[in-house]
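Worked example

This section walks through a single chain of length 300. The input is the sequence exactly as stored; nothing has been trimmed or padded.
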Amino acid sequence: MLKDNFVRFTGERRKTYMNFKTIPTVIILFSFFFLLGCAHNSIRQDTQEPLAEIDSPSDNDQKIETTQMSQTQLEPVLEKETETGIIEEEIAEESEEEAPHIADPFYIWNKGWYYFNDKFYFWLLKPVSLVYSTIFPEIVRIGVSNFFYNIATPIRFVNSILQFKMKDAGNELVRLVVNSTLGVGGFGDFAKGQLDIKRKNEDLGQTFGTYGIGHGFYLVWPILGPSSLRDTIGLVGDGFLNPINYIRPVTTSIAITSYDTVNHTSLHIGDYEDIIEAAVDPYVSIRDAYVQNRKKKVEE
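Given that input, the structure is written out below as tokens.
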């Protein structure tokens, strides 16, 4: 439940946040850390406990009894011990896979911006989104969401190709043409409703993940929210593929992106509240949910 709420609340809106004005700063601060992502990629070493050796008794009578024991009597015992060891090892591996882990060396920085984003949501973003939702009905807001998703097609198209997902890349082109025409400029998702071509999100962070590059370490950005070294660099790259970033003047681009954020939030009010209410430590829960969500997207 917590993970689902996280996915719904964050959606893919963070992909449109990065504006060209912020790109040089991010590159300067973090580009030299990029190789650390490889070092922090999760590596599992499978180890198997050797079977316990069967000591031969020193007593002559026991030696005779042991040698008389048939091979068919020993095999079930050894087989049972082996199966037990394998089962225990598989359980340990599954637990290791399920437990999300990411380095958090900038905990103070991240925790500070987490609190900032929390207050920003409750004090500004949520009130504005509530007012916005009372003015515009849900059907209009869904149409706006479809429009912005349609505009971001270049990001998904290029990253699908980089991941050698040619079918997905083709679907992105079909969705763009169909929704831009029959969907009236992208406000309607005709491709999904009539052609059953479902949405599939791809970004440069996921592309790096498919190449075996790990998260690096956890980061929280003001307004942008949870991220990682790998995904931050990916976000910069995706910024060059986002058509909104080429709108001039830059203030207009920022205003459009802000409007997209308000519209998205208006469709998911309550999801963030459910996350923090269900969590013992909201910061840790959001961090773990982020890692799980990104891991799932990379594996898809």
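What to look for: The chain is about 65% helix and 5% strand.
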